[in-house]
């Protein structure tokens, strides 16, 4: 049988999970305005102290069901992502909710929506990449600058920049706790089933390396209120997502 | 509040409907192999006699909620679509089920999936357009040829060609009946809500014009079995979709 | 032999001309600042009174050498273009020089550069299209609004909007005279041949139809100085380009 | 002044060189048919023994004039490239001529054409990337497979696959000698200047690392005759290009 686009399978837009990720991040941590952020974070999640993060990243992703796609269908294993996340609480437990994540491929869009991420399709995400053999580039070091942007439709949704100050370690990165999301699939007519459930993303195998810490700045069309940049970071990260679990009120 | 990508609203990927469509089609009618088609048509739909259609089209679409986007956000009102549809029956009533529809924008992808279409994102759809003022082109007339193709990932998913033989009328186009679909949103973990319901698309306001009839041919990676082309057509069509309704067994 | 990308031929990026065009335009006429415009118009062309035009359009183009591509390779016959043109003079004869034209395909980019247009590749051009059968759209009439934009890299290069006031005729459109350009191909090392010649584009077969006149506005990152919109127009046009001829000082 | 798209400068499509490159390659070495290859290699170059290479790569490129674009305009520093090169001779000196190089950005297209490369714009190039932190991926090792493809218009222009057998060194990679090219800019009308000169690309600072050697296979629409794969390789490389020099007969 041909799989439905949203039903994981070999002919679906989504392969069967768990799904494994390896990503290179350029991130900026900042404080937004709580009054604005509240309009981006749906109940039952409660905006915390205004701490947020924004990032652009390139992700190499394979599913348990098809790691061989890395060679046979590389277009099914690479995408770029840009996002803004807001620190929030569920029953007193802090976590991060991403009002929007822009991604560059269909499969990351639909897989994410299924798992509870509020993903949108980007037209383009571009971000700094260094290359150790480029005779015109230096290795990453204090003073190095990184940038990235996301374009959708008529203009930018997010752009950010980080200036490196020093080498860091994973513990230097602000911690938010688990990733929260919303699984939603509304009805379009009478008697149709609806899905509307808050979830926690089931994430494991997390590891971080190559951390560099510095200052950062960003612009976004997402209405986060006045932005107070706190810090910036460049790092690599890996993790596994196996789905999501419903959060019961 | 920021809308979830799948919950129609002004900040969602999907505007509030009903949604209106005006489309220019290049279509090929053909017979596939019933044994193959059965693997493309999910229960409760039953493959009929093997009659199928394939098309590429350009669609201008506006929502009741925002017709002004035609000027302010034209990228939210234009997309291309390529599809293969299979004649099938539900409780003895014939209709058409599209195992796959490839589209070129996020909003047509997600809107369609919500309504029950098995949409996928195309990388590119290209199709013949004539222009009455181009000094090197003739008006449409017997002998004129039209073609189109859809590319996704490493190659073509569909290509077709039509050679015009004569002017026609809407009644010259094969009739399939209503459009059937599947609304699906599977769980990704314990206790999550699932959606899995056969639907009929709620379509109204149908009108067709500028019909030209001829012969056609097509290639598709969709496994429809041996293709026996029946006819081809070029035409314009308009309609309104207000959602879908569940089909009860 | 395989053709060089710039040497017109069946395996080149450019087919052998003459090349025929049919285009749908949304145009805004405006006055820029002469001091700014002078920096956009190279010698021997002389900026005139500051009159300029900006447009977005969709073009159907075929070459004498391969009109059948309209069906077999529609991707070789359709592109979008956005441009800003400046009224200027050469030896006292007024014409129009386009400091930049953004286009959406390789072949229109390279063909244009060869002929003397200062073309650049756009990431995306989107513009209003109406459709007579769309139940949610009205026919073009006074009050109708049209818009378009061009995105390249991190943001917009041009956006414009036109509000229709009345039906018009071709003679209602401001006339600029011939199209001027620069053919340039600099050396990249000693003893290499250079091309640096002002040209007039060889244009014929011009025809215009479906003219609607109104008001317009635009934004562009091109440094044209303060913009004073004069009028807007929507129309269809066709013409043939056979190459260019050198303008001798 | 606004720069012409082909005249290197800060507002041109091409920045002022020299240009520095850091690239990750997946390459396949093969033998084509000399009779076929002769039709791909223009005089004064002479096809050698049929040795060819094909590759896909991702390139990070900066110009001497603007290394800061790596952060402020990453879209001006990253592109993908796919190409087929043919061993040939000029006055008895062996080198490599690339009948076609497909690239994913305007600036690499135009810069390459200016320097003498027969570049074409790809719609998409995708290639295997590993990530050391992805829990579902292994490090590169014997048995690892890499693949890549290039799509342009209706289909693939090149696809290739490499299976790693062992770690290697730069000297394990077949050597072709200098890169030859053709600078061409034909006239489009009477009395226009033409450029038609064979060149050698001025390449320096070459370095190679992370070499892995294995077997390979490829498909291409370029008419190279029957393909006999010889070997495959994955490696990183860096170099500088400062332009080209005319080869005098």
Entry keywords:
homotetramer; 249 residues; mainly beta; 7-stranded mixed barrel
Are there runs of chain A of 5+ residues with pLDDT below 50, and where? Answer: none
Backbone shape of chain A: globular
**Largest interface by residue count?**
C-D, 54 and 54 residues
Which range does the strand content of chain A fall in?
Answer: over 45%
What's the overall average pLDDT of chain A, rounded?
97
Descriptive notes:
- The structure is a homotetramer of 249-residue chains.
- Chain A contains three helices and eleven strands; from the N terminus they run βαβαββαβββββββ.
- Chain A is mainly beta and 249 residues long.
- In chain A, a hairpin with a 2-residue loop joins strand 7 and strand 8.
- The model of chain A has no long low-confidence stretch (mean pLDDT 97).
- Chains C and D meet through helix 3, strand 5, strand 9, strand 10 and strand 11 of C and helix 3, strand 5, strand 9, strand 10 and strand 11 of D.
Q: Which helices and strands appear, and what pairs or packs with what?
A:
Four copies of one chain form a homotetramer.
Chain A: E1 19-31, H1 34-37, E2 46-63, H2 69-72, E3 78-90, E4 93-103, H3 106-115, E5 119-121, E6 124-127, E7 145-152, E8 155-167, E9 179-185, E10 195-220, E11 228-246
Parallel strand pairs in A: 4-5, 4-9
Antiparallel strand pairs in A: 1-2, 1-11, 2-3, 3-4, 6-7, 7-8, 8-10, 9-10, 10-11
């Amino acid at each position: 049988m041909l799989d439905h686009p949203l039903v994981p399978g070999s002919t679906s837009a989504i392969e069967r999970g768990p799904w494994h990720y390896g990503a290179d991040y350029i991130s900026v941590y900042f404080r937004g305005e709580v009054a604005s952020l509240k309009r981006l974070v749906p109940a039952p999640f409660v905006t915390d102290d205004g701490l947020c993060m924004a990032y652009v990243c390139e992700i190499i992703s394979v599913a348990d069901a098809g790691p061989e796609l890395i060679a046979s269908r590389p277009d099914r294993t690479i995408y770029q992502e840009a996002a803004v996340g807001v620190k929030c609480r569920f029953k007193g437990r802090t976590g991060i909710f991403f009002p929007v994540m822009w991604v560059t491929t269909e499969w990351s869009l639909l897989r994410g929506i299924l798992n509870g991420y509020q993903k949108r399709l980007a037209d383009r995400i571009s971000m700094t990449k260094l290359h150790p053999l480029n005779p015109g580039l230096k290795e990453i070091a204090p003073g190095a600058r990184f940038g990235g942007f996301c374009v959708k439709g008529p203009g930018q949704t997010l752009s950010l920049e980080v200036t490196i100050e020093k080498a860091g370690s994973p513990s230097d990165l602000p911690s938010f706790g688990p990733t929260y999301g919303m699984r939603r699939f509304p009805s379009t007519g009478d008697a149709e089933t609806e899905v509307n459930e808050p979830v926690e993303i089931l994430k494991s195998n997390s590891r971080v390396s190559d951390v560099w810490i510095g200052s950062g700045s960003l612009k976004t069309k997402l209405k986060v209120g006045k932005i107070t940049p706190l810090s910036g970071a460049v790092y690599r990260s890996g993790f596994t997502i196996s789905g999501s679990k419903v959060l019961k009120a």
